[in-house]
Every structure is written in C-alpha cells, then in structure tokens.
Fold each of these.
Amino acid sequence: MADEPVFPKPRPKGSAYREPQPVPVLPEQTRKLVQRPEPPIEPRRVEISTEARALLTPVGDEQAYWAKQQFAARHPRITGAVLLVVSVFLAFPAVAMRLEGHRYGGRSGGFGAIFFMASLWLLGAGMPLETNGRPPSWWAAGMTTCTVVGAVVGIFLF
C-alpha cells in the first residue's frame, strides 16, 4: 500500500484562500470639460524672393554646417598641405605598381588622385568666404573641376 497517494487534510474555512468577493463599485467621477478660447489663426505670409542673394543664403541646418567648418576656412593652406601629404601616401603605391608594369594600381590611387587635385586647389586658391559664410561660386566651381579631373586621373590609376 505504499504506492497509494496521500493527500493533505482539507483546510479550514478561515484559511488564506477566501471565497471570492464581489468587485467594489466606486462612485462615478464626474469630469469637467474646460474650454479655452482658441487664439485667432493668422494667415501665413508667403514671401517668395527671386533675388540670387536670398536664394543662396544658407538657412537652418545648412547655416550650422558652414559655421562648423572653421579649421578648413581659417587655415585652408594648412588643410591643403595635410591633404596633399595624405594623397601622396594614398597614391604612391598605385603609381609605383603602374610604373613597375602592373595593370591595376588599386583603389587607393583613385582616392589619392582626387585628394591630390583638391589639395592643389586649396593650396593655390585658399578658401575665401562670403558674408553668409559660404565660399563663392567660382571657388566651388574650381574645386568641383579639380575633383572631377582627379577622379578621371584616378580611374586610370585603378
């Protein structure tokens, strides 16, 4: 008879397990609807300017971006010299392999050529800024041209 289960005695009525009680009903809370007068809606003033100065003036995030570019703007020739050194270290292995007769020079040659041309532009032209904090359009066109020429040279160094 050792295999028969033994159950504990039933608990008395006053035990920790009580009979379920009904959920208490709370009095309804009254809500007050507070209305405030709405301010009058002003019509939007849309001012469209066709002046070049108004169209090219940086606003918002773009203005903050140009305000952060202080080192390159204040020391463009130092930035150009550092970029020139970096470009020589990037392009040297590719140029050396091409001179030895290898067909491909690697990707670093392409980036080195782009950085080389950009650094030459910074060394030669500096980085003049207009009153709004951006470089003039001729400077941006020159930098773009140097970058494109560097990219074309870099393609041949690949």
Note: The chain has six helices and no strands.
Amino acid sequence: MTRPRKQLHFSAVQTREDLNYAPLPTRDETKIELFRAMPPGFVVVHYQRIGTRAGVEALDRISESENPHDIDDMTSLLASTSYGTAWHLYAEQMAFQDDPSRIRMYRQVWLPELQNPETGRVLERDAQMDNVLTGLAYAADLAEAIESNHVDCFDNTKNNYELGKVLAHMGARLSVVSDRVSGEHGTPEQVQGRVLMAAERGRTSMLQLSGKIDSRPSFAQVADEHSPLRRQLNDDPTLLSQKAHKILLEEIEEASAA
C-alpha cells in the first residue's frame, strides 16, 4: 500500500546565483540617514520585515474578497515570495558547504495534511486560509525579531533558519490555497497527491517568476519599490489584480511607517 507523501523536496540548487536580490541605492534622504546609521546588511532585513508584515495583512484583507481571483493572485504571489525567501534562509547553504560530507541537494519541507482521517473531508478554503494567516503572522513576527537583533548586532542564525523553514512550509500551504485544493473526496494518497502537485506547481511558478524578473522573488523585494519584483508588479496586471495590488501597496506603506 502506497503511503501518502508528506514532504516536498525543496532543492538547494534552483536558479543561477546571480539572481540573488541586492537593493539599489536610494535617493530618499530619510532612508539614506536610516541606512547609514545601521550595521551592514540592515537594508535587506528591514525590507524583509516590511514585506512580510505587509504580505500577511494584505492577504487577511483580500481573503474577504467576493472575487476568488483576487485571492488566487495574492496567494500565488505570496507563495513565490515565501519559496524565494526560504531558499535564501533555509536551503541555499546546504549546497555550499566547506565540508563535502555536509552538502545536501535539498531540504525536506512538510506538506499540509488537508484530509480529516475520521471523516475523509478535506479542509475547505476558509479553514486553509486561517492556517496560512496564522503561519504568515508568525513569520512576520520572526522577521521583526531579526530586524531588531540585527540593529543590536545579535546573532540571527537560529531566527533566520526558523523563518526560512516556516516560509518554505507557507509556500506549500499558499500554493494549495491558490490551486483551490479543497472540498475534494478521495483516499489519503489521492488527496496528498493533489497537495504535492499544488506545492510543486507553486515552486515552479516561483522559478518562472525568477526568470521573468531576472531575480529570485522575496519578501524584501515586496517592500523595495525599486526591486525587480515591485517593478514587475507595477507594470504587469496579470501578476496581481488591481484590487490586490492596491491593498498590498497600502499595507506596505502601513508597515513602513511602523
């Protein structure tokens, strides 16, 4: 008897190394003053904090939308940024180790288990969304802790690992919501097969978006108005609906002011 697949193989080698996001210099005098006063590397963790918080707040608002395509677009985008950020924090280092015996080609990412073993029912989309929002809120709290620790020059190794691990799982969960894997009957193997395919499609979408913007999408890029991802979001209405785009920009502004 085939056992349900419970993990996704999250490859440590996914795209070219030169697709790593690097913030461009800014002419904003307020930002210049802030960034100069902070330790090196602050810009990325600062934008990461803003982007992660804006992402969960925007998704919370858009989850009430009467248009399911708004939810599809937002969950698809956040799946890509979750997977992209997770690669940086959780998977990348596995392929680049000084000790060859420690090199690993992938991380194991737990897939969501949607089927109730007693009733055979799959969690409906609203329940799945509640789980996603809880997980992303935890990720946003971690991102805030990372920024605070960075300012105080504290070690962030554990927090970075935890954030990457959480976001890899959230990438899978968001992909399942985006693919509308809900309300379906079937054996546990069949249901988990659909979950796995949705998670894989979400990861593939992240890789395709990386090729389109010539950079790996991340939550830091969500917050940086000059990043390749933000430029694509502003110019490409097929990536995010008008309503979802407007809400995301509002939440970025709100998180930036915090």
Note: The chain has one domain: 7-13+22-257.
